[in-house]
User: Fold Glucose-6-phosphate isomerase from Rhizobium fredii.
Amino acid sequence: MKTLVEQLASVVSETNATDIRAAFAADPNRFSRFSTRLSDLLLDYSKCAVNGKILDGLEALAKAAKVEEKRDAMFRGDIINITEERAVLHTALRNRSNRPILVGGKDVMP
Assistant:
């Protein structure tokens, strides 16, 4: 049985290099199908060499890798850097609000 990575690699290899113009000509709704907005952020995959099968495979891989759980652990300040045995502080580096960033119950923001 193939792993999710192998399955995704098979789907990608079966997909010919996408001619973006041809993809839009074949599917006038491509932009709406392969893009989404999150507040002011536009995520546009319509101009990438993807199709529904590839995105489904990527989503399945992310779920299997528990990306959502790991993201939540990062925002909670859990120890997820297993090499250094500490929390990662990516969120603190990008924090432009007055919200505290807690690591081990302590606010690490100045």
